[in-house]
Structure formats: structure tokens, C-alpha cells
């Protein structure tokens, strides 16, 4: 049965005619918000061990790819893959170093896509030209950590970039054959529902191709943990998140791919909320809420105010 939102799985099946799985990779890049370039503190919520099994790996990229392919073939019966450069800011090095890392995928004909997670302040024309050079052979995505369109929130979570920098990155990227994904966090400190819906409406008006939703969650050894322990951070409840996610999706372009509906985290690193790891039930609850509303993604999308998605 078709979901009431444009899922990434549906997009991939339409494009490739079969199941496609992402292989998460750690190329050993750094993050300028942690290495002292912009800040040494990092984002208040960030601990790579929370989302990545290869956060501290020294395994060569080609070995990571081979292991990921072998695992997915056995567990998911998949024959096609997307190489997902996930850890840190994967455009934080110079072009030669980036090319060396990205070129690792060329040894694997099973790979049909290249996805690169990065910050909007870690991109320039030379890097975008390099990334576009893979687009003739692969389905190429850049996933920008946008998080929010509200600068007061970005300051609160120590992102060390502004929303205007995000706009510049998107504008430069859209000139190329690169699909654009935006990571958004719902439930950020001091953000009201009005603030979050402002982010939804703004995303709907930008030439992006996909949105990945995250739930604000508290990981060990972060500034957010310190604030949470002092009672300074309020986290969303499951029913509240379901409502927010549906409201958010109703305002997006119906052609915008939903790269993910809800985030999760490794149990040994996650402090709260524990319910985020019950992903299947949360996704089902979102679909049920859409059914209850007789609604779907894009219900309140204002096309006349939006630039077209490619």
C-alpha cells in the first residue's frame, strides 16, 4: 500500500526498479565545528557514536564498502547500494582528498548512488564541481545539516553557521546535477511549533529534493546532556512528535522525498527519549494519523510561493 508521503524507498524503487540499501561510511574526515576551525565545542547534541557504528574506525574505505555490501546482501537480499559518506563533514577536506575518498566507490559496480552528508558552510564551487562529476554514473545527493531556519536556534545549539549560509549552499548546489537533501531536527530547545512550521514552510519554498527528519534526543557526553540533567531541556513525547511530523509533511512539496521520518540512536549512548528506537511503531503512528486526518504530504503546500523541485 502506498504511504501518504513520498518515501525514499518509493523513490528508489521508481528510479532503479528494485530495493536499494545505503551503506554508511566513515572516510576519516573531521568537523570544523569540533576541530577548532569554527568551534572546538561542537553542536550541543552531537556524539557520533550515537548514530554510527564506525565512528572511530580506521578500516579502509574499500573494506568498509565490501563489508557493508556483503552484510546487506545476506540480511536484506539487496543487489544495489548507495555509498553514504555519513560521519563528520564529508566536504571538509580539499578537492584532491575528497576525490580520493569518493573514488573508492568506482571499484564496486553494485553501487548506484553517492550520498554525502555535510554542513552548508563546508562547500564551495570546486567541491560541487567534483561531486557533480559523479552524477553521470550515480544518483548523487548532498545532505546538508540545516536543522532549523531560525538563527536564534542555530546559536542555541552552537551550529556555528547561519541560515543565510544554508541558502547560499542550496543556491549554488541547485545549479548542478546534484540532488539536495536537508536534515531537520524537530523539538529543538526553545522552538515552538510555530518555529518548526516556519522551517517546514521555508523548506517547501526552496529547490530541495528531500528532507530527513530527526527527533531531538540526548546522547552521552554532550552539552545537551548537561542541560538535560539540569532540567533545562524538554523533549517531545511520541504523540506530540507524530503530530509535529504530520504537520511538517503537510506543508512540504508532495514531490519532496522523505529521506527519513524519525531518527534513532545506539542504546548504549542514548539517554532520552527511549521511544525513538521504536521506529516502526512511530512510523505506523504517523501513517495512522494521516489516515485519521484524511490527509497526506503536501496538503497545505503553497505552490505559488515555491521554486520548482527538479
Shape: globular
Count of separate structural domains: 1
Helices and strands, in N-to-C order?
HEHEHEHEHHEHEEHHEEH
Low-confidence stretches: none
Tell how many strands the DSSP assignment holds. Answer: 9
Named CATH topology: TIM Barrel
CATH level-four homologous superfamily name: Aldolase class I
Estimate percent helicity.
25-40%
Q: Do you know the CATH architecture?
A: Alpha-Beta Barrel
Strand content: 15-25%
Count of alpha/pi helices: 10
* End-to-end C-alpha gap: 26 Å
User: For the record, what CATH class applies?
Assistant: Alpha Beta
Q: Output mean pLDDT.
A: 95
Please state the structural category: alpha/beta
Overview of this structure, please?
The protein has 310 residues and is an alpha/beta fold. It has a single domain, classed as Aldolase class I (TIM Barrel). Helices cover 34% and strands 17% of the residues. It is built from 10 helices and 9 strands. Strands 1-2-3-4-5-6-8 form a 7-stranded parallel beta sheet, sandwiched between helices. Strands 7-9 form a two-stranded antiparallel sheet. Helix 7 runs parallel beside helix 9. The two termini are 26 Å apart.
Produce the secondary structure layout.
Blueprint: H1 8-16, E1 20-25, H2 61-76, E2 80-85, H3 95-102, E3 111-118, H4 125-132, E4 139-147, H5 151-156, H6 163-173, E5 179-186, H7 193-204, E6 210-215, E7 218-219, H8 223-229, H9 238-250, E8 257-260, E9 270-272, H10 279-293
Parallel strand pairs: 1-2, 2-3, 3-4, 4-5, 5-6, 6-8
Antiparallel strand pairs: 7-9
Helix pairs in contact: 7-9, 9-10
